[in-house]
Amino acid sequence: MVKLRSLALMTLISSVWACSFNPSNPSQKGASPPGPNTPLAQSESEPRPSVFITQHAIVQGSSIYNMLKQEGVNPSTILEWVNKAKAIIQLKEVTPGAQFKLSWDSPEKKNVTSFELRYAADASLLIEKAANQQDWTAKKVNFPITTVQKTFHGVVDSSLWESAEIVGVDASLITNLAEVFAWQIDFNRAVKRGDRWRLTVEQRYVEDKPIGWGNILVAEYENDGQMFTGIRFPQNGEQASYYAPNGQSLRRMFLKSPIKFGRITSGFSTSRFHPILRENRPHNGVDYGAPIGTPVLAVGRGQVEFAAYNGGSGKMVRIRHNGIYSTAYLHLSGFAPGIRHGSQVEQGQVVGYVGTTGLSTGPHLHFAFFENGVYRDPIGLRFPSADPVASGEMQDFQKTVASTLRTLPDWQMANNQDKPRQDSVKPTSPIDRPNQEALFH
Ligand SMILES: [Zn+2]
Predict the structure, then answer these.
(1) Distance from the CA of 264 to the center of ligand 1, in angstroms?
(2) E strand segments, 82-206
(3) Contact call for residues 131 and 113 (beta carbons, < 8 A)
(4) What's the Cα-to-Cα distance from 88 to each of 117, 127, 131, 184, 331, rounded to whole Å?
């Protein structure tokens, strides 16, 4: 009874650990047996007299060091733990909200015998007394992640986000959906009322608690009456990519260079000496040396969102390829016919000509690549394969197509739930659909 009263005074937090947390002496009758996720339980090889556990969370404005000190852990012990933990995690970087458990040899908290910190949804740090009862040992404890398939469907009324919200889909999952079809649909601009979508996704769990989304296995999006299907498939030894049911990749490649026979004269750099401004500044692109008048090619299909003189950039073209990627072409001597704000360009189309307009020391093209509005080094970028499914893998792929399409929720259900419709449901079998590849070239 004394034990129980003193335990009640300790900080008890029911949350992540609620199911494995057992404040009583594990040797006591009726205590739950130590499971795989209860590393604090007594180990057979190393008998301890009793274990008393307190559980805490790092509060805002405090630190793990202060919290441990406050709980009565000796500062020199804390420093030893910090050192032991270094190979696994930097304790000073642990953020508020992280939970930890301390075990003690008595309810009066005389001697601490272990420290366990849950620093990630699926991992914790465990520091225990070594066999010699003097030193401390640190190890990482992994919690098994299980995945469950979930399906969702929605119909767009005012926006894609709203259609997701209605059916309980969070922003991160709808972002992943938009990424699957990023090359087919510009979700920032092309979403129409009446668009509909459905998907099957893995949800990841640790100890029956959802910790986030895994991969979208299959998704369909009908944009302005046109249906797109993406099936996740890992080709031999490659990163998984999304394919149309005919095996064409949903990804599009960029040309390796915007100039046919240019050479790189200056690479991407976070700091380089600017020859005109005479100071160190980032070089947010790649320079290609080429004679004035050399044609400059759009590295991908897209829409021109800028084609005009732009201060130090000189004559410049900027192309938006999809909701994620844009490219810019600077210091041009002139624009190709038809290149103006809003015009559509195909991959490899001439958009302008090499020049030396703006802040430029000589004829060259400055080529910039943006990912979500941030400068990226186009030379260093690696994309998953844009190649179609190889013929040797086609059989496996077709099996995946058949089995994953079957997991999708019924369109009719989506319509009934979100917005009743009178029109008939279009066939969704891949056989009835036109070749998606043909529609995008
Ligand atoms: Zn440059």
Answers:
(1) 10
(2) 99-104, 112-120, 123-129, 136-142, 145-155, 196-206
(3) no
(4) 11, 11, 21, 42, 49
Long-range pairs, 424-432, Cβ under 8 A, ≥24: 426/222, 426/227, 428/220, 428/227, 430/229, 430/245, 430/246, 430/401, 430/405
Phi and psi at 96, nearest 5°, equal -55, 145
C-alpha span between 186 and 325 (Å, rounded): 10
CA-to-CA distance for 369 and 328, rounded, in angstroms? 7
The arithmetic mean of pLDDT across residues 177-186, rounded, is: 86
Tokens of residue 415, six digits: 């319509």
Determine the distance separating the centroid of ligand 1 and the alpha carbon of 276, expressed in angstroms. Answer: 12
Those residues whose C-beta lies under 8 Å from the C-beta of residue 195, and which sit 6 or more positions away, are 155, 156, 160, 163, 221, 222, 223, 224
pLDDT tens digits, 268-295: 887 777 777 777 778 899 999 999 999 9
For residues 89-98, average pLDDT: 90
Q: Look up residue 433 and give its amino acid.
A: R
Is the pLDDT at 429 greater than 60? The verdict is no
Q: What's the whole-number average pLDDT of the chain?
A: 81
On the question of pLDDT at 340 being above 60, the answer is yes
Distance 367 CA to ligand 1 centre (A): 7
Distance 376 CA to ligand 1 centre (A): 13
Strands 145-155 and 136-142 come out as unpaired
Please give the distance, rounded to the nearest whole angstrom, from the Cα atom of residue 263 to the centre of ligand 1.
13
The CATH class given to the 263-376 domain equals mainly beta
One-letter-per-residue 3-state SS of 311-363: HHHCEEEEEECCCCEEEEEEEEEEECCCCCCCCEECCCCEEEEEECCCCCCCC
What kind and span of H or E run contains 281? strand 280-283
Q: Looking at residue 49, what is its pLDDT?
A: 58
Structure tokens at 19: 């199911």
Class of domain 146-253+392-439: alpha beta
What CATH number does domain 2-142 carry, 3.10.450.350, 3.30.565.10, 2.60.200.20, 3.40.50.10860? 3.10.450.350
Domains 2-142 and 263-376 are alike in CATH topology = no
**At residue 181, does pLDDT exceed 60?**
yes
- CA-to-CA separations, 54 to 9, 40, 119, 263, in angstroms, rounded: 10, 11, 17, 65
Which residue type occupies 8?
Answer: A
